[in-house]
Design brief:
Length: 146
């Protein structure tokens, strides 16, 4: 299966994008939960009381169901990933990640090793070097006075 096959087979038919939160209808078609349900009360959007593909009526639940972990895992296997940056969370295909990273305005999550003040970080070692040089200078000035 090539990229366009995945795009066609696993993308939401409404927004045409990938999502790990797909809701399967009684007709066996799936649509992402974001397109199907209202954001506030999670009720089915009026325009989607029938399947957007086969037009089957009442194919999807009236309220957003809990998305099974297996559905998320299947979409992950198919190549759907979520941006790891804080305040972004956009879902995309694995082959779109590098391009997304260039334009993403989400905040990069800081790891403990990179966080200032943690052992081994550049700012911590810089601070300790500064302290050591100050100690050396103060000891040398004490030695000169004596």
């Amino acid at each position: 299966m090539n990229r366009t096959d995945y795009d066609t087979a696993f993308s939401c038919p409404v927004c045409l994008g990938p999502s790990q939160n797909m809701v399967f209808g009684l007709c066996q078609h799936f649509v992402c939960a974001t397109c199907l349900y209202e954001p506030v009360d999670e009720s089915l959007k009026a325009a989607l009381h029938c399947c957007p593909i086969c037009k089957a009526k009442n194919a999807f639940p009236d309220y957003c169901p809990d998305i099974p972990e297996t559905t998320k895992q299947l979409m992950n296997i198919a190549g759907v990933v979520k941006c790891p940056r804080k305040r972004c969370g956009e879902e995309m295909w694995t082959w779109e990640e590098k391009e997304h990273e260039k334009s993403c305005r989400g905040v990069v999550r800081r790891t403990a090793a990179r966080c200032c003040g943690s052992p081994g970080s550049a700012s911590t070692s810089q601070k300790s070097n500064t302290r050591q040089s100050k100690r050396k200078r103060s000891k040398s000035s004490i030695a000169v006075r004596n």
